[in-house]
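task queued by scheduler; priority normal; single chain, no ligands, no partner chains; default sampling; output format set to structure tokens
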Amino acid sequence: DVKTDLNLLLECLKYQMDCPVSQKEALITIYSICQQNSEASEYFREIGGLMFINDLAKSSVHCIVKEAALFTLGIIIESNVYCQQTLCTSALFEDLILFLTNEDSGVNLKRMSVYVILVLVSNNSNGQAYVRDTGCIGLLLRLFRTTLSTSDMNLSDENTDQCYQLWSSVCSTLCACVNNPQNEDNQNICSSVFPYAKEWLENCTEPEIVRPICAFVGLTVANNPYVQKYFVSVGGLDTLANVLIKLMHDSSMSHSSTKLAVVVTKTLDACIANDSTMGVVLAKYHTVSELLKLLSNDTLDIGEKMSIILTIGHCTEVCEENQCELLQNNGLPLMIQVLTESQDEELNKAATFVLQNCKQMTEKLSLNINDNSLNKNDAEEMDVPVRKRSLQDYWKKAKEILHRINLIEKEHNEEEVQGRVFVDRFSEADIEASKYHEMNPADPKTYRERIHKIVHCPQLTSKLDDQVLAQSVHSPPLKNKIVSTMDPVNASARQNYRSNIPCSVNKTQASSVHQSQSIKEKNACLKTQSSLQVVFSEVFFFFLSNLDQRSLYSERAKKEKSTLTTSASAKVADLRCFGCTAGGLSFNSITFTKMLQSCPHQCEHHKVILEAEERYKKELRKWTVCN
């Protein structure tokens, strides 16, 4: 049972005060039980074992007991946060300072003391404050400067190795003093040893030295612009760039050198992350090209690649020299390759960051090219906005023209359809009227009513009003007149007139209609339609000019119709035409001819008159068609 063992071990420590070896063995057993065991460490604290070991470290005269006691304290503190809070006091820090400053203290005792400081300040803002307030951090910085000599670095030597272990522990403790949580006050204090860190890096590129220094520098400058500027001012950024070049130019480029180059890269990124303008310093060392070479190494894991890409992004964020170097070394395709091949979201974000810099960079480069050409062609460059506006105007005008063309084509199609309907219906009306006249010429009343229905079809009247008259006559009042005068009496008179006059005209129009249909099939319908519209408009003018005269004859025609229908046998026997029986009725040449044409039995005298008039009208129609 762990608790029983801890109780027995604590009793052993208490009753073996004169036997340092037994105490050391008991302490080793205790830390082996409590290591990474928070419950055991907490129980040991509850039974008073933690404070007993603390007192033992201070009171024991045996060095081996002191060292073992401090190491056991460190293990227990690291395993349990309550033990850390219990021992995190200024008194303990002062005791540790005594161990470090005592000339009789050996290197191992100092190392164990530094280890206890490390676990007290790790993830503990109170410990960071105590290490600063007690002056312990100043002592650690002195150990950083003096523990090792830059002129004699032989780690194979046992004494040197012990000093190196102490120095490495000091570096780790300083890192804990400034980071997690970040402590700006401690960062500012630790920055005082940057010149010494720079000297170490200049004289030694061994991993044992570069790694601790890079870790210390990176955490000290992290998110602290003041410290970053100071590190750059002492030449630290130049030194890191040179170290990276040395590691990258290693002929063997061993795996260890690659990993160490990644460590240096992370430190570079920490130095310029908050102020990318300091990346200009790296341009003269061609750091971006070195980073691209490092990124192409196949042995890197995702975290290492992300660190390199972020460093490239910060280098190229505002520095045009680094941006150009990125393009010249095929950095853009490499970033795209990372995006296409990687499934890691954070890595893709880092690559996107670099690509965004590439976008800004190409815009700047194009502006620079334009600026260079501006010196030669200032006027042309100044006209760029004007040309853009002109181009927009051209597009607008082109769209308007296209819209107009579409409207014209639409109107053309509508006119073609309407003209085709008009021609077809007009020809059908003429053919039907002529057929009906041939079949029943002795029925003038029915004939006039039939012609009235054909000519004044509502659909055809609509087409004529809207299209033919509007386009050929160009007289809206005339159109209104046509509509207003279509009463039953005048309509019958007009159709009676039409049945006599345009008889041959109908044939001509019918042949013209067939001709127009053949022409339309040959894509010449517009010409035929316009000619038909002209002919039909002339016919309407003819009707309008004689409208009043036909109205005078309409009543007389009605009377004659009733007389003609009284007795068909009497008409046959009499054989006298309407012209002979008209007597003293009032007629003019037009109404009289209309009456004669409606007569089924014409005398020889009036027949000669009608034939002469037909020859005259035939010549007139030929002239009209030719025009």
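post-processing summary
- Residues 425-574 have pLDDT under 50 and may be disordered.
- DSSP finds 36 helices and no strands in the chain.
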